[in-house]
Design goal:
alpha+beta, two-stranded parallel sheet, 45% helix, elongated
Length: 191
């Protein structure tokens, strides 16, 4: 019993030390936020399964893809927490809560499944290669492909769509130049 008590005390001391180090680091970096919740979210992220490979859209009639944007330094400076984890095909929200006593902190996880989920470290090109490019053949067979972005203001819709547009235009012109459609009149008749 004495040994267990000593182990608990050591664990509590280690936690306090880690918390103080994190608080000092956050202060140096201008980050305001609840360090305990940060550490709890990190523990939850360690439990998340590794991502699966992304599905290509060519075999799906409708594909729902989610792309997580990185949290901005300005948000960190105002105390926001990065409480979203993306691990294809899942998005996990780590909701920070207090128990009924108003003191005890805990994390409630909410998991959502999509056709593809892209984390903040994945490029627009990775998104394009799995979600859009496989559908280019449909365009050349006189089909219709629609891609639209939906989400909250500031969530990265315009950024992602601008990047995708650049890749689509490049691929369209590469294909058309390979087919010998060099003048604009021929291109518009083809499309």
């Amino acid at each position: 019993m004495k040994q267990k008590r000593e182990e608990r005390r050591k664990k509590i001391e280690d936690h306090k030390k880690t918390k103080q180090e994190r608080e000092a680091e956050n202060e140096r970096n201008g980050i305001v936020g609840d360090v305990e919740f940060e550490m709890m979210i990190e523990q939850q992220r360690e439990k998340v399964n590794p991502p699966y490979e992304h599905l290509t859209a060519e075999n799906l009639r409708i594909a729902v893809c989610v792309r997580k944007r990185p949290i901005f330094p300005k948000e960190l400076a105002t105390g926001e927490l990065d409480c979203v984890t993306a691990s294809n095909p899942f998005i996990k929200i780590h909701e920070c809560k207090l128990k009924i006593d108003g003191i005890t902190k805990f994390i409630e996880n909410h998991e959502f499944s999509f056709d593809n989920a892209f984390h903040e470290g994945e490029s627009s090109e990775a998104f394009y290669l799995s979600a859009i490019r496989p559908l280019m053949n449909i365009l050349f067979d006189h089909g219709i492909v629609t891609c639209f972005a939906y989400g909250q203001t500031g969530s990265g819709k315009t950024f992602t769509m601008n990047e995708i547009e650049n890749f689509v235009v490049k691929d369209l012109f590469d294909f058309l130049s390979q087919q010998g459609f060099f003048n604009i009149g021929k291109i518009f008749r083809f499309l």
